[in-house]
Model the fold of this input.
Amino acid sequence: MLVSGLHPSERQTVTKRRLIRPAAWVAAVLCFAAVAGFAVLFLGQRGYLGQRLAHRIQLEITRRQFDRLYSLPNPPFLQQPNEFLTRTASSLQKGAALVVACGQGRNAVYLAQEGWDVTAFDISEKGLEIARRTAQRDGVPLNAIEADATEFDYGTDRWDLLLLVYAPIPYDDAGLLQRIKASVKPGGHVLVEMPIEMHQPPERRPRIPGDLMPGELPELFRDFEIVSYSETLDVSDFYGERKLIGRLLARRR
Done:
């Protein structure tokens, strides 16, 4: 279409139309893509597109949340090693230790300082960066791995001590729990500290990772020797909230 013979105002109108049409198409395509992406995320997160995709979406959301948390200059959790761990580990024979969901490595680095051969994993690369940096600063070896608790290769008869300290794993996942227990050497120990709380009705499945009911921890490890267990109203390592805290030390028979 020629516009040279048109009045200047008419030429401007034609030119604007030529520019607006493709811009409108681009905007429409982008809008459609955004809506489609949101729909896939919404359906995927709720399991309508398969549980594996739902798990991957939730994992990525959780990873980003913890990356942000561990990037804070003053993160809202205890920086020192867990007190239950420090007063318990000294009585155990040192060997290979696994720290599940290690975060910034406060407990992993402590065990390495005490002479344990420590492997630690977390989904947050930011947390692992800090853990590695702290271990290097303190001159202790630390094998820090980026991994998800449900997919990590725990091995068999591998660990003398396995830590689940504020580790938000799905404790009602019988398959996962069996893999964790089988990875502990006979005579080795599992040490757990977790808030005893439910964020949803207990019958709802799957549970929110980390949810536990009163009295459930020793029941989950009933095939181990329960060395000690307590449920005490105490200050949580995270956010400093007063909660019912479960503390378990169990020995594999």
About this structure: Residues 8-45 form the longest helix (38 residues). The two ends are 87 Å apart (CA to CA). The helical segments are 8-45, 51-71, 83-89, 106-113, 125-138, 174-182, 216-220. The longest strand covers residues 184-195.
